[in-house]
Please model this.
Amino acid sequence: DVVMTQSPLSLPVTLGQPASISCRSSQSLVHSNGNTYLSWFQQRPGQSPRRLIYKVSNRDSGVPDRFSGSGSGTDFTLEISRVEAEDVGVYYCFQGTYWPGLTFGGGTKVEIK
Amino acid sequence: QVQLVESGGGLVKPGGSLRLSCTTYGLTFSDEYMAWIRQTPGKGLELISYIGNSGSPTYHADSVKGRFTISRDNTKNSLFLQMNSLRAEDTAVYYCATPADSSIIFWGQGALVTVSS
Model:
């Protein structure tokens, strides 16, 4: 299976400041059809995960524009331009390129300093 | 509005069995692939099974192969996970989810399964 490695494990951030989370895959996530199936999920405390970003950089409906995704091949980044209190939680990357073994990263916990 | 509602979680002894159900609302169930994803403190999120919209193909991760079986009933908009020979390491929150366009679109609220004597 493709291994997804996130860093850092924990990210203390000051309100209003930017935050950046890295995700690296053990193989290129470029599919034979040209798409790159890398998604980002947010899990707030006590809630189910919720998708924020799909295919590297496409924001889901209702996701604030302070969230952005970028990257290519094996290196990807989720950025929050100005962290708000509601952004506290754990963030996961996910690869959907290699079926059947779809895999998640280990998670990055975002907390307020 | 799409809703996925899991049921059937609980406490079970090692070696025991449990059947999880997921009833869906607000989507055309028979058009959708469905999946079970579990979450443990130690291993994080793991997609353990999925099933095609008409019952095939099916997939089970190595960690559950031969012990868990995914199935569905399109007449009842329902997904199931039969879990046998349960082990302590199967203790987790189990989510019903919709894998679509090579991502995960919708998630249920989760069902806690605890395997302990």
DSSP finds no helices and eleven strands in chain B. The longest strand of chain B covers residues 92-100. The interface with chain A takes residues 44-47, 50, 59, 61, 95, 99, 101-105, 107-110 of chain B (CB under 8 Å). The two ends of chain B are 40 Å apart (CA to CA).
